[in-house]
Design brief:
By secondary structure, this protein is mainly β. Helix content is 0%, strand content 47%. The strands form two sheets. Strands 2, 4, 5, 6, 9, 10 and 11 form a seven-stranded mixed β-sheet that branches. Strands 1-3-8-7 form a four-stranded antiparallel β-sheet, with no helix packed on it. Strand 5 and strand 6 form a beta hairpin. It is globular and about 40 Å long.
Length: 122
């Protein structure tokens, strides 16, 4: 069983930055892709970014390209999401996820964290 714990959320003004972290409990972490999703009230969970197990390939949703960067440290079983130039529309609960066959769809992931709130004020 893999457990994921997110941290780093908070309240920030538009244009500011936050770095989210997601720590995994199992060594199998290093074999799986890792992704970030987000969900706002009344909206479906949305894919944000994903990184391969080696860190050699990443994919982002168009709305965050050039502003967000996903990275991972397999030695620490941790994935990060650096968020710059934040906008009010980035406000959401952010979740990390992992699983053997995951990419950019939520149903592809077996394991999820509890989420961390990001609020961007205008």
């Amino acid at each position: 069983q893999v457990q994921l714990v997110e941290s780093g959320g908070g309240l920030v003004q538009a244009g500011g930055s936050l770095r989210l972290s997601c720590a995994a409990s199992a060594r199998t972490f290093s074999s799986y892709p890792m992704a970030w999703f987000r969900q706002s009230p009344g909206k479906e969970r949305e894919f944000v970014a994903v990184i391969t197990w080696s860190g050699g390939d990443t994919t982002y949703v168009d709305s965050v390209k050039g502003r967000f960067t996903i990275s991972r440290d397999n030695a620490k079983n941790t994935v990060y999401l650096q968020m710059n130039s934040l906008k009010p529309e980035d406000t959401a609960v952010y979740y990390c996820a992992t699983g053997r066959g995951g990419w950019n769809k939520s149903y592809q992931y077996e394991y999820w964290g509890q989420g961390t709130q990001v609020t961007v004020s205008s």
